[in-house]
Amino acid sequence: MSRIVRAAAIQISPVLGDDGSGTARKVCQSIRDAAERGVKLAVFPETLVPYYPYFSFIQPAFRFGGEHLALYERAVVVPGPVTGMVAEAARETGMVVVLGVNERDHGTLYNTQIIFDATGEILLRRRKITPTYHERMVWGQGDGAGLKVVDSAVGRIGALACWEHYNPLARYALMTQHEEIHCAQFPGSLVGQIFADQMEVTIRHHALESGCFVVNATGWLTDEQISQVAGDPALEGPLREGCFTAIVSPEGKLLGTPLTEGEGMVIADLDFALITKRKRMMDSVGHYARPELLSLLIDRRPAQTVHAYGAATEPGGVEALS
Which of 13, 68, 299, 315 is packed most tightly, with the most Cβ within 10 A? Predict the structure, then answer.
């Protein structure tokens, strides 16, 4: 018998100017709204909580120090109050939730994707492996430990953020783990229509190549928020359009109508029989692979600042490295 999962890609605006809790409350309300429509998997945009660092795209680095520091103060600690709120909403609704956050780990911020199971348990916390262009002044780099597919209440889920989808080896790392649903996240309200066009090509290609569903969520800024972020009408243009919230089948077909402006949800029923139908023809990590010719080496060890070998104790009980 075929298995069917109802999924929602949620396009949503952040709450700007508060401590970040406002956006988290919007996320939890959206989870409950989706549950009323029978949704069992909800995917939210890239670094939605507290908000994507749009300021870094339109300002030179030497000018956005104050806004960068404000993002530090509003960023999410994992685990912490925000993850607790979302975990409770996931548990209450029996829903799997994929959420993008700015994660603070002591003195560094990361672009982090969190997968909550329907029990509220955090199944995966992964960090974007290479921030893109302007983002490198805001976030640190992730590592291979996050290139992982996890078993959830709705199936095997993998996730990548934004231009990680242009790293074919990162995508292949997830494909080899047989992801059934790929959760993609982009910032939205950025670059213009070309960003949305490129996004569509990217997520439809991954669905075809991997033989899985892709649920893609982008953020949205209102006109008022664009003015607030830009601070200058001349800088507003780069913060418009660039939204493409959509769900794609393993055959590369758009399920439902993509959302390119405003807040809302794209909801679709994912029929897992389509995965087998696609992979019968082309399984890129199975019968269509040539491992004796082409293979992938992955270092899944978490990055560590300190490697202590042969710790010895000096007089006074102080450990020294030998």
Answer: 13
